[in-house]
Amino acid sequence: MSQATIPAPRSGYNRSKSGGSKFELAAWLYMRLSGILLVVLIFGHLYVNMIAGEGVQQIDFGFVAGKWASPFWQIWDLLMLWLAMLHGTNGMRTIISDYAEKPATRMWWQIILYASSLTIIVLGTLVIYTFEPCPAGADPSVLASFCTAD
Fold first, then answer.
1. Tens digits of per-residue pLDDT, 89-116?
2. How far is CA 77 from CA 40, 46, 95, 98, 110, in A?
3. How far apart are CA 89 and CA 91, in angstroms?
4. Is 83 within a domain?
C-alpha cells in the first residue's frame, strides 16, 4: 500500500494538474457574485412590488406600465432577468455535467438548456424594451384606462 504525501502548508499548488480550467473557475466565481447581486435585486423588487405603496393590491397592468416607463426599472428588471437566467443556466450546466454519463446525452441536454435559456433571455429583453401600454392608433376600447385616445 503506497502512502500519499501531503504537501507542506503554503507550498505552491498547481491547479492545471487537477484538471480544473479557467472557465470553471470563472463559472464558480460568477455563481458567487451573481448570487449576491441577485439577492439585492430580488429583495429590492419584492420591496417595491409587495411592501411599498399599496402592497400587492397595486400590481396590475398599469403598475407594470408605470414602472417600465422608467429606464431605471427597465435596467433593474433586465439585470434581474439576465443574471437569474445565466445563474440558473450555469447551475443546470453543472448538474448536467455531473449526472449525464454519455457524452451524446450530455451534449443534447446542454443544447436544449442553452437554446431555452437564450430564448427566454431574448424574449424577456424584447418584452421589457418594446412594451408599449398605449400604442398609437389602437382601438380605444382595447386600451388601458390610463391611456388617452389620440
1. 999 999 999 999 899 999 999 999 999 9
2. 12, 12, 27, 31, 26
3. 5
4. yes
pTM: predicted TM-score of the whole model, two decimal places? 0.76
Please indicate, yes or no, if residue 150 is contained in any of the structural domains. Answer: no
Place of cell 487537477: 18
Higher pLDDT pick, 112 / 145: 112
Closest by CA position to 87, among listed 127, 41, 28: 28
The answer to whether residue 102 sits within a structural domain is yes
Domain holding 84: CATH number?
1.20.1300.10
Q: Which domain holds residue 122?
A: 22-132
Residue keyed to cell 453543472: 94
